[in-house]
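Journal club prep — side note

Before the paper discussion, L.F. wants everyone to see what a predicted structure for a comparable chain looks like in token form. Sequence:
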Amino acid sequence: ILLAEQGELDHAAQLLQQDLRQSREGDILLAESLLRGNQLEQAEQIATRLLQTAGTDPAVIRLAADIYRAVGRADDAAAVIARLDQAAADHATKAILRAQFHSKAGDTPTAIQILRGAATQAPHSPQLWRTLATHLLLQQQHAEAIDAIEQGLRHLPDDPSLKAILSRRSLIADAVEHAMLPLAIALMNNPDDSAAAIHTALTYRLPGGHRHRLCLDCGASKSLLRFGRWVFVSTLLTYLGSQMDRLLMGWYVPPGILGIYSIAIGLTALPREVAVRVSGAVLFPLLARSAERDMRHVSATLLGSRRMILSLGLAASLVVVVASPCFFQRLYDARYHDAGWMAQLSAVSCWFAMLQMSADRLLLAVGNSRALAMSNACRLVWGAIGCITGFQIAGTGGFLLGIAVGALAGHCWVQWELARMGVLIIAQDLRYTLSLALLSAAALMGPAAWTALFGPLKQSVAVLGIPIALIVPTCLWAGARIKREVFG
């Protein structure tokens, strides 16, 4: 049903054809999907089979009549509708199905006649009165439609749907008068739904003395183009900055080293991608709404949100720094073991990138897309300089640290722009960065210090115990921080 509502009728039909139970409901849905998709031959075959097995089911009768009429078998469709006399349904349901059949065939007066007769015999069906009123509206008989609803209320004084329709009689009348029949029918058929959209459409069409026309607001268009231009530049620079390392590394190292680096960066980038998703899907809308309401609270909103993102990023980065050598040594052969230390060095640039991504959404939220573009430009320029200089000094390791220089330069620009707005994040950045540096140093150098103090007998315990003793509490702390920020 969901696929059909989205217009993917072929996929809906394929899904229903996979239903091995061959249930009546599944066949009805399949035939309806085929009918909507104009696959009339297959729909006709299913309808014929359903009539043979369940020829008195009202749903089957309605469906078969629609399909037969669609393929041009009008007499057969009328014969199928005649089966309603033997159907196990109440009088009102049979009358509604007959009326809908004639209405679809273009014979609305006959449909109205059937519904009027049924309303006399079965006056306690609210659906019958609503259907009668809808068909009267189709004939532009607004007064008669409202009269039908009033008659229904005399028989069903407590029915909420009929009361809701009657309370909107003026809106229905205005919709009919201004040639907005679909809106009038929507009000008639969905009396319990919210009418906000319908009210909006009516207020757009109904005011007298004023005609709405398309126009161009030059000031707004210039502002939009100015904002969009810098967003485009920022996006372009972001892409170039993210691919710069691979472009430059291909000039300096053999393809084999470049492949190992690609594997290493795939592991290191996981925490950064999480930060990107959270910043784009959660943080940006939150900051935009906060900026619209009161700029005085934006700083607190940003710092509170960053506590959650950076806590998660700190724990994930610590795991990458500590566990990446063991990860590649256990899962890859000796040719790929260098990916371990590459991942450790790449984690530095990824951390600075997380700091920037968790803060620069505020620039975009307040419309300062130019500052965001300049930040990405700094990252690109300083990253290229750092990579080239670093490779000349320390080889591949210096190249990877050069990427971190570019990421740090881009984030420093963001810090400066936010400071101009009165939003200070430097202290928060320093706290989390120093925490990550100290924990990483303790986890990496702790086993060597332990061995120097207690000898090689305890080395195996130190190699595993110290990193685990640091990683587990950090992850628990990050989880508790996220829980506190999210659930209060």
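L.F.'s comment for the group: The chain is about 80% helix and 0% strand. Keep this in mind when we get to the figures.
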